[in-house]
Amino acid sequence: MDDYSHLLVEVAYATPNKQVILTVLYEDNMTVERAIKVSGVLDQFTEIDLLVNTVGIFSKPCKTDTELRVGDRVEIYRPLIADPKEVRRQRAEAGKVTKKGAGSASN
User: Fold this and answer.
1) For residue 80, what pLDDT is reported?
2) Range of the domain at 57
3) SS3 46
C-alpha cells in the first residue's frame, strides 16, 4: 500500500464546541478554495461562507485563490464577536473601578 502522507494538506476549522482538521490529497496547482471544497468541511459546517469567512495558511491570512504547497494547513476563521481592543478597554475600566472601591475602607 502506498503512503501518501507526504502529499497531504490539512483544512482546519473550529467552533467553541468542535474542532476539526481534515486531510486532503494534494493536487497540482491546488488553491485554498479547492482544498476547502474537497475536504468536506463545508458540508460539516454550513455556517462557513467563503465570501465572509477569512482564510489563512498557518495563521497568515490569504485569499482563497492562493496556491498551496504540500504540507500546508488551511485555516478558516470565524468572524470576531467582540473587538479585542474594546474588550481590553472595558477590562481596564473595570480594574480601575475595583481598585478605587478597594481603597475606600474606613479606619
Assistant:
1) 72
2) 5-79
3) coil
- Residue 46: inside a domain, yes or no? yes
On whether the CB atoms of residues 56 and 62 are closer than 8 A, the answer is: yes
How many structural domains compose the chain? 1
pLDDT surpassing 90 at residue 36? yes
For the stretch 4-35, pLDDT in tens is: 667 999 999 999 899 999 999 999 999 999 99
**Has residue 47 been placed in a domain?**
yes
85 lies in some domain: no
C-alpha cell at 1: 500500500
- pTM > 0.90: no
The answer to whether the CB of 74 falls within 8 A of the CB of 36 is yes
User: What is the DSSP code string of 57-68?
Assistant: ETTEEE-TTPBP
Q: How far is CA 21 from the centre of its chain?
A: 11
Instruction: Kindly state the cell numbers that stand for 69.
Output: 504547497
CATH classification at residue 42: 3.10.20.280
